[in-house]
Every structure is written in C-alpha cells, then in structure tokens.
Amino acid sequence: MEASHHVLGTSSKIISLASARGTEKLCELCQGIAHLQCIKCRVTFYCGAEHQQADWVGIHERICEVLVSIRSPTLLSLQEAGCIQRQLKKVELIEVCRLVALSKLSEGKHQEALPAAQFCMRCSIDVHGPRSVQMVPAYLLLAEANMGMGNLARAAELLSQAEWAALKSSEHAVHQRLHRCLGHLHTATGNLEAALFNFANDIYFASEEYGLGSTVTHGGYFLMANVYAKLGEMPIVRSLYYEVAKTWHYQLSNFLETHIQNVQSPERELETCYDKAQRVEVDDMLRTMLEFEQNDFRKDSAQIALVAHCLAMLWFLAGDSLKALGFGNTALQASQLIPNHDLTEPIQGLLQLLLTAR
C-alpha cells in the first residue's frame, strides 16, 4: 500500500475522533488533543493532517505495524511473558528510531529527524526510566534535531537532562557524545570558549575510547578547528585540518587497497566502507577543508592534493565515478605543482582505475 493511502486529512481516508471524547487521545508529535487516527495501525493519533504527514515521513511509516502489538493490550500481552515481549519490541524500536534519526541528522534533515528522535526518547523512558544513563543517546538526538531547527533553548534543556543522566556513566563513549553535542550548542550560541572546552573534552574521551588515531577523535579536531576559524586563528585551523586530513587519507587508502584486492579476488566478499549517512558527514568535512585551502591566499598545494585525493577515494568507493574523477583531477593538478610529490603516483593510479571502469 502506498504512503499516500495513509495520509490523514485526505478524502474518505480521514478518521475523526470527534465522537470519542470520553477517552481523549493525544497527538503523537505535539501531545495536543488528537482529532485524527492512523487508518492503518489505529493506535496512533494526531492533532491534524500536518503532524500525521510529518510523523509518517519521519518514522511512522517504518514502525506503524509494530506499534499495534505494543499499544493494543490483550489478555496474553498483560501476562508476564507478554509484558517481557512488549519490552523487547520497544528495545528494538529504540534502535530503529535511533538509526533513522542519526541518518536524517547527518543529511541535515533536522525537521524529519524530530519524530524519530521523539519516539526514541519516549520508548527509552518506558524501558529504562527518565533518569537512566540509557537515556543519554535519546536526549542527544532530540537536542541535535532541535539545534538544527534553531530551537536552542529546548536543546539546552535536553542537554542539561543528558548531563545529569551521564553522571552515572563511566563509559567514555557516552561522555564523548555529550561533549560533542554541548560543543555544537555553544558554537551555535556564540560561546566559543565554552565550545572549545567541550570539544577538547570530546577529543579526550574519544581518544580514550577509540584511540588517538581514530576518525572519531579527529572529528573533534575538525570541530575545534572550525571554532578557531571563527576566532580568526588561521594557523591553528590549518594545523588541525592537516591532522584530520592525514587520518582520513590513511583510512581511505586502506579501504581502497582492500577494494582493489577484492576486485582481483572475486571469491572474497566485498565490504562497503561507510553507509550513506557516514559518507555525507565525511564528504561535508573534507569539502570544508578543501574550500578553506582553495580560498586561502597562500593556497597550500600539498594540502589541496591530500584532501582532494581523500574525496576522490571516498566517492570512488561509494560508486560515484563522476565525483571521484572531478576530485581526482583536482588532486593531480595540485600534486604536480610540487616536484616529486609522493601523492602524484597514487592519484594517477586512482584516475587510471576510474578510466578503466568507465
């Protein structure tokens, strides 16, 4: 059945709750009084067609049928085994909503991410309780969605709740994600000193969890560099961007080598290097660094070659030969400005792979 069949507020597909005032229902998105009901699961309600459509696009299309068993109590489901089964389904829903929200946030679709983040938080409260440390990821997702929509006050409230919950955790990954989100908030509000403090903590906890050379740790370096750019500290920006580019070049070169080996040995299983959401994030980071160098009056050719080669490898591995070719040519032109540059040969090899594949 197509999605349009489930959009409430169209023709005969509207189900009004006006006659059911005895037990008023609340809107899935805003918690206001509901007037419409999802015609498929019949256990989800909305104040109007606009919120129904937003929820459908955001998350409801993926979880509509699952909600029936969770929200429709039966004699069996009220028994102990049934209650356990319902809790397990809620745990699964938390993960589904988390991944959907993360994907949409990475693509900059903050409005669309909001329903998934909200449902993730409600399910997390049901399963873990509002003050549990397991609430931190849900608070952070919802805070990030609100930041992207400009709701900074609401984001600050959510991050305050996340900070209290995180006090109970000794996990470095939890604190790393919290400080990264706090850094984003302070950057958005213009409190750059606080942003630098939180990104420094982000880097510390990331290095403890993932290692100094990890791309997660260097993600913190990139964000710190962006703050220094706002402060006009360009030598620091250039130094941090160089460290980030080196790490990504090493990572992507390894992926490329593995890809070539898999092509040469068809019996080996080909592994993908990053999903769509991760590629969008990495692409945005690398493009920012490339534009910084290209727009700088000094134009560091070595850095341009390094970053452009990263982008070429990224899109080659993603199967977009047109983008890979464009960045590859940019990398080659920059490397040829430096006598005996050590990246010239690898860049030429990648371009040869691209031309052979066309």
Highlighted features:
14 helices; globular; mainly alpha; 358 residues; disordered N terminus; two-stranded antiparallel ribbon; 4 domains; 2 strands; Serine Threonine Protein Phosphatase 5, Tetratricopeptide repeat
- Our count of domains comes out at 4
Encode the helix/strand succession as letters: EEHHHHHHHHHHHHHH
Structural class estimated from helices and strands: mainly alpha
Which oligomeric state applies?
A: single chain
Please outline the major beta sheet. 2 strands, antiparallel
Q: Order of strands in the sheet with the most strands?
A: 1-2
Distance between the termini: 38 Å
- Give the CA-based shape: globular
Tally of helical segments:
14
How much strand?
A: under 5%
Q: Average pLDDT value?
A: 87
| Helix content range | over 70%
Low-confidence parts = 1-14, 18-22, 266-271
Question: Any overview of this molecule?
Answer:
- InterPro entries: TPR-like_helical_dom_sf, Zinc_finger_MYND_domain, Znf_MYND.
- Residues 27-64 form the MYND-type domain.
- The chain folds into four domains: 1-77, no CATH class; 86-169, Serine Threonine Protein Phosphatase 5, Tetratricopeptide repeat, CATH 1.25.40; 170-232; 251-358, no CATH class.
- It is 70% helix and 1% strand.
- It has 14 helices and two strands, in the order E-E-H-H-H-H-H-H-H-H-H-H-H-H-H-H.
- Helix 4 (110-128) packs antiparallel against helix 5 and helix 10 (234-264) packs parallel to helix 12.
- The longest helix has 31 residues, at 234-264.
- The model is unreliable at 1-14, 18-22 and 266-271 (pLDDT under 50).
